[in-house]
Amino acid sequence: MIPYRIIQRKRDGEELRAGEIAEFFRGYADGRLPDYQMAAFLMAVYFRGLSPAERAELVETMLRSGAVVDLSDLPGTKVDKHSTGGVGDKASLVLAPLVASLGVPVPMMSGRGLGHTGGTLDKLESIPGFRTDLTLSEFRRQLERLGCALIGQTDEIAPLDRRLYALRDVTGTVESIPLIAASIMSKKLAEGIDALILDVKRGSGAFLPELDRALELARTMIGIGDAYGKEVVALVTAMDRPLGYAVGNALEMEEAILTLRGEGPEDLRELTLALAGEMLALGGVAGSPGEGRAMAAAALDDGRALERMREIVEAQGGNPAVLDDPAILPQAPVRRVVEAARSGTVVEVEARSIGHAAVELGAGRRALGTAIDPAVGFHITVKPGDIVEAGEAVATVYARTPEDAERGREALVAAIRIGEGPAAPLPLVSHRVTRAGVEAWEGDAAEGGRGA
Ligand code: URA
Description:
Elements: H1 3-11, H2 20-29, H3 35-48, H4 52-63, E1 79-83, H5 91-101, E2 106-110, H6 120-124, H7 136-146, E3 148-152, H8 159-169, H9 177-190, E4 195-202, H10 211-227, E5 231-238, E6 246-247, H11 249-260, H12 266-282, H13 289-301, H14 304-315, E7 334-339, E8 344-349, H15 351-361, E9 377-380, E10 387-388, E11 393-399, H16 402-415, E12 416-419, E13 429-434, E14 437-440
Parallel strand pairs: 1-4, 2-3, 4-5
Antiparallel strand pairs: 5-13, 6-9, 7-11, 8-10, 8-12, 9-11, 13-14
Helix pairs in contact: 1-3, 2-4, 4-9, 5-11, 5-12, 5-14, 9-10, 12-13, 15-16
């Protein structure tokens, strides 16, 4: 194989022959192919896409780049969740302990921040001491004991996704249906799941803002799951504004803890319950997603989910006192309140620019392997549709320096649009996609589009 010929042929829209994708990606996995050639190939895929056969070969190659965990000896239907990426999307941090507390094992392998979106691993690692790099045997033992382990792609499981993910993050090659689908499904299939719920985002802060592209991504991932005998259900959910109030790693961790304590924003709670209902039905402990939702609401309200999170944090080396005192999380030295420049209706809280502004503050990465600042970010307390008075506080910027705080403030003033007209936010959950097709969402969350 001559790598630049493969790149040229994909660039020119040719379908590659069976075995070529596998050889190219294996070459990258074992260090024979450099980052720059893989980056060029990924950009060609971004523009040209992959045929179903090429995509299937990519999934298989990524999946087999490490161990494929067999959890069949552990009791229960193992169900995981994955989001296609959003701003302020900390639902996994509430959902995983919640579902595990109700008896459905959740082997959760997550990612780091990607582009303008945050990553579950970065958020978890804002807890002092928390380890996301469990070995395979630690992962299994914890799953057996607590019904949940929260890990990242490792050298052992889905190592190729880990490298590609980091490379795509900094080369403008994230927003591609086959690359997103292969990334998500390869690591989910490798971790030993029986079933999967996908949170497919749409709206400005999603990688694929348009509904038709979000649905195509959902169908693609459901089809991949089908090919491996796994049941996959997708909910299409709103990412035209951030989820909850907090954007930034420690701030989001704090908000997830508050939600586990029953004190979080309404939209985060509602989305979590919708996803939990589906997971509990997939896991066979609830007769329907609606019944699962009610079970999940009870476990959030009576503290079972919070207690399970405490056990998980402790088991993974984190300081469990954080559940009682989130001030233990890293704190930004500079805080700046953002005020409404005029009176009116909040017509937009534009998610993508807020995500980029958070990366600018240091909450995400600009180049391969750079460190993030866990403490920085935003707390935005208004939602589309809220009425505000001029001078009213609408957000707080958490920054490392006064200059960063000012830049963050300017970004929020532009992103939080206040006007006369009515706001038209997307419904929090709009569609449910299964292998049978697409249905309009009729769950309780359809009413709960706005935060508290
Ligand atoms: N989440 C992933 O794991 N991979 C992607 O490519 C996008 C979102």
